[in-house]
Amino acid sequence: MNLAEIGSRIKYARELRGLTMAELAARVGVNKSTVKRYEDALIANPKLPALQSIALALGVSPAWLLCKSE
Hints:
It is built from five helices and no strands. It is mainly alpha-helical. The model has no long low-confidence stretch (mean pLDDT 95).
């Protein structure tokens, strides 16, 4: 799992939808700082349910977010 690429994809999808980190955090049910840590690849062992929630909130497939598809 390439954490930097996942973080880049989260940020890309978030910005594409015009969401702030705080707005995404509210949709997912986490703190803004948690979203920042995901985007900056500072979470060493991201949990699959959390990544699935982020994908759902961003309207992208979990496979795309995890770099398993284009």
